[in-house]
Amino acid sequence: VFIDLYNKGLIYRGARMINWDPKALTAVSDEEVIYKEVQSRLFYVRYQVEGADDEWLTVATTRPETILGDTGICVHPEDERYARFRGKRVLVPLINRAVPVIFDEYVDREFGTGALKVTPAHDINDYNLGIKYNLEVVDTFNPDGTMSPAAQLYIGEDRFAVRKKIVKDLEAAGHIVKIENYTNKVGFSERTDEVIEPRISIQWFMTMKDLAEPALEAVMNDTVSFHPAKYKNMYRHWMENVKDWCISRQRSWGVPITVFTCEECGELLASREVFDHVTALFEKEGADCWFARPTEELLPPGTACPGCGKSRFKKEMDILDVWFDSGASYAAVLEGRPYLDAPADLYLEGSDQHRGWFHSSLLEAVGTRDVAPYRSVLTHGFVVDEIGRA
User: What is the mean pLDDT of residues 316-325?
Assistant: First the structure.
């Protein structure tokens, strides 16, 4: 399924912002992020205008530890309070990096001071602003949540320890205007309960642009019917707000991504011939041989790069997201059957699997076979205790 989707241009590898678990050291999907309401603090921090000793611009942030990665300040174009800052730059506190003041309607004029610090490496909305205005990306975190050399200060120290330290240093340098108590929602990893860190990372993604429309159409025209019917509108909401799905994980167990990269030119090798050869090895030795065997033993003899003709490759070490893997189960059920192109009559699931298993099955089926894998989906309830726990 992966190879078919890749060769159809529906899977790609690239650098995008993803949810990163600093404890498990892996990307996680949106569905694996649990948002909790936490008691935080809102820090009002002032930035000096470049070349003006007595002119400042104040922002409000819950994450002062990311200030060292700021590459811009954004205000609303109709906010008259900041009209005088057009064309000006401000200095990032403590490190004096000069960054531009940009104007965009994304900013909420009612939140904080109406001025937003822009840290493209550590927030998805800031990342999008950074792309729009060609801002520098400064990644101040290592994969384990400690400060990277790019931060310039507190290198190697944990992000939350730095939050306390930098506030004291900002206060000592005269940059803290005030601090308020603030309640906000923070994303936690479903598996480790670690605070998720938005992170730009090279990962594998399934493009949803060409899959969402046929998947949604199959549901809305009742090619696939839901029981209870309420899930139909819920599914429509999901598909109308879908974004590309990060399907790779950095774990030591799971289904390998059977792709090779040419060490000479970077060309990706994901042909059906190579896949069939690897599959035969998996059937004989198990999927663990992908990681245990040297790269050259995994390739068919005489394999050459289609780009440069060389024969030095490295194997992909990431594995597939478990939901992508389980979503391919329809292929295992239908493969080789005389009713190959006919969908199964019924898919039975718990509500906890709906967005994972069924959702991925439908997307992968329409992407590879242009047909929904099931005619009906029955979502059953759970036996729960007095407070609703399953």
Answer: 92
Amino acid present at 142: N
Give the integer Cα–Cα distance in Å for 7 and 272.
Answer: 9
CA distances from 222 to 199, 217, 218, 374 (A): 39, 8, 6, 11
* Predicted pLDDT at 137: 96
Instruction: Give the SS3 label for residue 343.
Output: coil
Whether 336 has a pLDDT exceeding 70, the answer reads: no
CB crowding 34-58: b at 16 or more within 10 Å, else e: eeeeeeeebbbbbbbbeeeeeebbb
Distances in Å between the Cα of 316 and the Cα atoms of 28, 54, 306 are 18, 54, 17
Instruction: Yes or no: say if 101 and 65 are a contact pair by the CB < 8 Å rule.
Output: no
What is the distance, to the nearest Å, from the Cα of residue 262 to the centroid of all Cα atoms in its chain? 26
Does the pLDDT at position 352 exceed 80?
no
Contact 198, 127 (CB under 8 A): yes
Mean of all residue pLDDT scores within the chain: 92
Is residue 332 very low, low, confident or very high in pLDDT (cuts 50, 70, 90)?
Answer: confident
Q: Could you tell me which of 164, 79, 149 has the C-alpha nearest to residue 114?
A: 79
Q: What is the tally of helices (H) and strands (E) in the chain?
A: 11, 19
Question: What are 78's strand-pairing partners?
Answer: none
Contact status, residue 316 vs residue 259, Cβ threshold 8 Å:
yes
Pairing of strands 197-206, 11-21: antiparallel
Q: Is 60 exceeded by the pLDDT of residue 291?
A: yes
Using N-to-C axis directions, what is the helix angle for 209-220 and 359-368, rounded to 10°?
110
Determine phi and psi for 375, rounding to 5 degrees.
-85, -35
Q: 62 near 182, Cβ under 8 Å? A: yes
Alpha helical stretches, state H, the chain: 2-7, 124-132, 159-172, 209-220, 231-240, 272-285, 289-292, 295-298, 322-327, 329-334, 359-368
